[in-house]
Amino acid sequence: MSDVPYGFEKPVAKTLHDMARAAGQRGGAAGGMPEQRRVAIALTPGGGVPALSGTTPGTATITLCQIDGTNGVVTTSVQETGYNLDCTAIPENCYVTIEREYIGGAWIINPPPITDLRLDGSNLQYKRGCTWATWTTGTSC
User: Fold this and answer.
1) E-state strands within the chain
2) Which of the four CATH numbers 2.40.50, 3.40.720, 2.60.120, 2.60.40 does domain 38-112 have?
3) Which of 96, 73, 72 is nearest to 85 (CA)?
4) Span between the terminal Cα atoms of the chain, in Å
5) Is-contact 63 42, C-beta < 8 A?
6) What is the pLDDT along the chain (141 residues), one digit of tens a residue?
7) Residue 90 has what DSSP assignment?
8) Which of 36, 50, 56, 105 is 20 to 30 A distant from 84 in Cα terms?
């Protein structure tokens, strides 16, 4: 069995293999993070993070956080650009987990799940993180 991925020619497969090996040695292609630090905690900014638009991810400057045994989740002074690949915006001032994208090293934001639904007048709303947002507005039939 060949070690060349299906659909790739040998020179391209070798380049991909070399990139993957180099990324593994550095802990990430661009981040230089050790293997055990591929996931982190971040706080979204005021205004939140916009949704994916076509093939363009929503972006925002997020603040990295850490869990302190005494004080709980605390913010650090480190800020990074985070990318939202979800079709809905991520609320402001919301703690999220983020992961490094393997090839380019970008921080990908894991959006908080929708945890509740409610009807507020004619507005169907969902709760994501700590924030309620209107999903759709009903009209009379």
Assistant:
1) 39-43, 58-68, 72-84, 95-100, 107-110, 114-120, 123-128, 131-137
2) 2.40.50
3) 96
4) 63
5) yes
6) 445 444 444 444 455 555 555 555 444 444 454 454 478 999 999 999 999 999 999 999 999 999 988 889 999 999 999 999 998 899 899 999 999 988 888 999 998 888 899 998 899 998 887 788 888 888 877
7) B
8) 36
